[in-house]
Amino acid sequence: MFAPFTDDALEPQLSVADMAALRDLLGDAIQPHQAIAMLDLGHHRSRLLISEGEGGHPQPVFHHMTLGLDLLATRTFREHMPTEAQLEHGIMLVEDAVMPMAHLIPPSNVFVTRDPYLLEVGQQALGVRDVTAAWKTTGRLPVLSREAVEAQFELLARQAAHPHLPQGDLPQSPRWAAALLFLREILHHWQLGAVRLLPEKAH
Is 167 within 8 Å of 161 (Cβ atoms)? Predict the structure, then answer.
């Protein structure tokens, strides 16, 4: 389903050739039969891309959620780190957006993102300064597990309960908090164990 308006924060439409290049980049992290699932967070909406593997349809199909970072960071969190009540409200908003899309996730897939806000979440959780540099150094794409995301979310929830007491080196950015919340709920409700972090210009 294509959305009726554009969001400049979302990546341009991707082609079959882009998907083939992405499979080459993933290397042995993806099997020929596995689908690619890619998440982008926009300002006003967010997008899930699905490209099926061998025996399926490699042409990317785009599914849109009518929830973006602006609604969470600006309206719900009011441009500050969230309070406990704001975080609970944010959880409900994200759940309402992501749960109806859970059935779209192929049973065998590799979940990836190159969304800049999600990369920031991953870099913080993994203690990696730069995803692209880490990839070039090791030759492998960084993998952010659901457990690592949960650990960051626990810190965020602890701070939300005591808003004037920042937790460790947790970034004090409402958009970072919104992206973390998005990713946490998606990994949980789409039953995904991890997300692979792509260099921002991998295609």
Answer: no
Residue found under tokens 């990696």: 128
DSSP 79-139: TS---HHHHHHHHHHHHHHHGGGGGGS-SSEEEEE--HHHHHHHHHHHT-S-HHHHHHHHS
The pLDDT of 52-63, averaged and rounded, is 93
Q: Give the mean pLDDT of 148-177.
A: 92
CB burial string 78-114: b at 16+ within 10 A, e below: eeebbbeebbebbbebbeebbeebeeebbeebbbbbb
Answer whether 71's CB lies under 8 Å from 158's CB.
Answer: no
Q: Report pTM.
A: 0.92
Please name the residue that has the structure tokens 């150094």: 137
- What distances in angstroms separate CA 16 from CA 12, 25, 30, 126, 148, one per listed residue? 13, 14, 16, 31, 32
- How far is CA 71 from its chain centroid? 16
Asked if 117 contacts 197 with a C-beta cutoff of 8 angstroms, the reply is: no
Instruction: For residue 58, give the H/E element and its range.
Output: none
Write the Ramachandran bin of 55: left for phi over 0, alpha for psi from -120 to 50, otherwise beta.
Answer: left
